[in-house]
Every structure is written in C-alpha cells, then in structure tokens.
Amino acid sequence: MTVHHLCEKNSILNQFMAEIRDVKVQGDRLRFRKNIERIGEVMAYEISKSLNYRTTAVTTPLGTSHIPLPSDPIVLTTILRAGLPFHHGFLEFFDRAENAFISASRRYNEAHTRFEIAVEYLSAPSIEGKTLLIVDPMLATCGSLDLSYKTLLSRGNPEALHIACIIASREGIETAMRIFPEKKTTIWAAAIDPELNEKAYIVPGLGDAGDLAYGERI
C-alpha cells in the first residue's frame, strides 16, 4: 500500500490548505467551500497520473492525433455532507465518472465522550471491477471510512481503491493501512497531522469541515 503525502512538496496546494485552516478565514463559508473544491481538483490531477491509459486516435481538422486517455471505469464516492465540495472538485476533472454518495456520521452519547458511526443512506452504482475513489475531507479515526467501504461492498468488489482526504491523522493513516486491502489500495492525503484529541478530532486540523462548509447542525 502506498501513502502519498502531497504537502511534503511545496505547491499552490499549500495556499489553499493554509486558508481552510486559518480561523480568520474560516468564517467565509463560500471561500471555505471553494478552497475545498480547489484542493479536490489538485488531488484529482495527482491521482490521474496513477491510472491506466489507452492510446486513442482523435481526428483533428488537419489529420489524426494519437492521445493516451484514461481507461479506468471510475466510481467517485463521497461521504455526506462535508465531502460535497471536495467531491465537486474531483468531478471537475473526472467528469465521466459514475458517482456514489454515503451518509456516515458520528453519534455521540449525552456526555459527548463516546461515539458510534452510523450509515443512514447509500446511493451507488455497481463498483464491480471498477476503480473506486472515496473522497472525504477528514480522516480521523478511520471509523466512517471503514464502515462506508464495507457498505459499498454491497455493490460489488472494486479492482482498485483510492482513498483521498485533505487532512488525516497519523493514527487514521495507520488504521487504514491495517484494514484496507494492501495490494489494491492507495491513500492520498494533502496533510497528515500528528494526533487526535480526547474527542477524536484531528490536531491541529481545522475543526468540523461540515459545519464550516454548511453551518452547524442540530
């Protein structure tokens, strides 16, 4: 299994990452969502380099050009609701992909000290033999990601799995490396942060991505 840590190399990605983390900028939800979308576009481009390609003849007004084009059948999957702008950024590049959506969220006890992951909704095509991309901004404990993947397996067995997140915890990465199929999984993270706090939020992280993008929920 390969883990790509994109912010280890300097690029314009750093600017988008700085703005989504900055408490002085986070109050602008439109800007927050746009930066999440732009990070998705950058990551989609990076992932595209690892896909399979097939040379295709393209007729121009003056002749024929032979161009390698992506040949993998892609299912682009996101976990609602924080993943929506991230998903849209990927879809700008993988515009021919099929799409899947899952609602998976934490359910805390009254003291807000423990939680369980609940899946309430799935809309997905067959993923049998396809390249599955699961894009979710935050990879904290890996609980939501694990349950979402297991739920998706009701739609088939993918040929390859790409997991893309904006910020991951080191613990979340280590858990993902243990539980996902080693030979067909690639993990892509813009940033990998060192720890989780007592409520299992990533530190330094950025806060609750869903609330920052769309407002608090009850």
Termini Cα gap: 38 Å
**Number of distinct beta strands:** 12
Ranges where pLDDT stays below 50 over 5 or more residues in a row are none
* The CATH C-level class name: Alpha Beta
How would you classify the quaternary structure? Answer: single chain
Number of domains: 1
Number of distinct helices? 6
Structural class: alpha/beta
Helicity level: 25-40%
CATH topology description:
Rossmann fold
Order of helices and strands: EHHEEEHEEEEHEHEEEH
* CATH architecture term: 3-Layer(aba) Sandwich
How much is the radius of gyration in Å? 18 Å
Task: Assign an overall shape.
Answer: globular
Profile the largest sheet: 8 strands, mixed
- Percent of residues in beta strands: 35-45%
Overview of this protein structure:
- The protein is an alpha/beta fold and 218 residues long.
- The protein has one domain: Rossmann fold, CATH 3.40.50.
- The protein is built from six helices and twelve strands.
- It has helices at residues 13-21, 29-48, 83-93, 143-152, 170-179, 209-214; strands spanning 2-5, 53-60, 63-70, 74-80, 98-108, 115-123, 131-135, 138-139, 160-169, 185-193, 195-196, 202-203.
- The strands form three sheets. Strands 1, 4, 5, 6, 7, 8, 9 and 10 form an eight-stranded mixed sheet that branches. The chain has a two-stranded antiparallel ribbon with strand order 2-3. It has a two-stranded antiparallel ribbon with strand order 11-12.
- The protein starts with a strand and ends with a helix.
- The model has no long low-confidence stretch (mean pLDDT 93).
